[in-house]
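Hallway conversation turned thread

IA: we were arguing at lunch whether anyone had actually written out Terpene synthase end to end. Turns out nobody had. So, for the record, here is the sequence (344 residues) and right after it the structure tokens. Reply here if something looks off.
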Amino acid sequence: MSSAVARLQTARSSSPKKILLPDLVSHCTFKLRINRHRKQVTTETKKWLFKDGNLMGKKRAAYHGLKCGLLTSMCYPDAGYGQLRVVNDFLTYLFHLDNLSDDMDNVGTLTTADEVLNSLYHPYTYRSSARVGKMTRDFYKRMLPTASPGTQQRFIETFDFFFQSVTQQASDRAAGVIPDLESYIELRRDTSGCKPCWALIEYANNLDIPDEVMEHETIRALGEATNDLVTWSNDIFSYNVEQSKGDTHNMIPVVMNQEGIDLQSAVDFVGNMCKQSIDRFIEERSRLPSWGPEIDRQVDIYVNGLADWIVGSLHWSFESERYFGKTGRQVKATRVVELLPLRV
């Protein structure tokens, strides 16, 4: 155990047994909408995930409590059935990968990355019996017919970044390393898996935005502000479960370690960063240039899709059982979280 981890465990043992969450829901004024295909897509994705007896017992129960179909429907409210189904399959699969990577060393993540990326780059020719490869090829082949070339490229590239970052995360976990805040933020923007989801906003809404527009500094800044809100708020919401497992790949212990502050002060610190990221998104959106009527129309849809992710992820976090069990709505109302004991 590293000295930093030891200090955090000591600090945690002397901390209060509850924390007060920041009020991020009230700070976010974007309209929450839900896709009309939610129930049908949720049913079909469950069949897809559970095919061949995959996920049994507690893992299957955890999937039902995840309510991924609700997240997808909140974040892609205007998608047609076919696109929403592909996106929901991907997000479900991404949560599955995230759970797997929590228990992997860097060799395990590299092996999984090899399966997934070969399946994406060669969906019609790569052959592997590994289930993760089969699932990858299955949803990606359904995405290809209507995804623009730029969307396909952005999806694969950012998913590659995801695997590179979770490999680094696995190395840090094995070494008991707690990174500084700047390094953590840089890594977290990729371990979140958000960037491929932004490419799916293009896919879900049948957009074909030129590469030079997607690479414009304002568009990139909007994606980054959204990523920061989604991931930093997720670190707050998931902290209780993660601290009970001794996991320190979370912004709250990073801030406690770097700033030398207590748990509640770190929660407040990260909460303020989340509020600033929403404010940053609004400010950047006001700076959008014009590229002509048709591209401006598509950019508006894309940017609204980012706003849907901000408001959707915040509300879904309290509906899902992933972070607060069955008490999510109570936590949403009171913002009080009772800390779980550290697992032996």
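OS: looked through it. The mean pLDDT is 91.
IA: good, adding that to the notes. The chain is about 70% helix and 0% strand.
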